[in-house]
Amino acid sequence: MPIRPFRWLPHNHKRHAVDADLVPRDETRTLCGEELVIPTTPCTKDQWCWPTCTECDARWRTAEGILPFPRRSTPTPHPRRPVPTTAKAHAR
Ligand SMILES: [Zn+2]
């Protein structure tokens, strides 16, 4: 079952998550429940620097089945890749 994709959208001084398939002028709701209209102009760099909405972040993670925090309670441990130990700085 495919997961509905989301994307970040700066709104009201926070970066909220909205459905990815929305187009400008669509009326929608952020994942945290704020109503907004998709802006027609691209977001500014400043807007992308706004803090992430924690509520949206949490709901996004829930929707995608990601644990809220990187806990060490995963049933199967990650296989460790061998680390190259002899990294000689040959300038070739
Ligand atoms: Zn939000």
UniProtKB/TrEMBL annotation:
Chain segments carrying region Disordered: 67-92
Pfam families for this protein: zf-HC3 (PF16827)
Domain of life (superkingdom): Bacteria
Name of this protein: Zinc finger protein
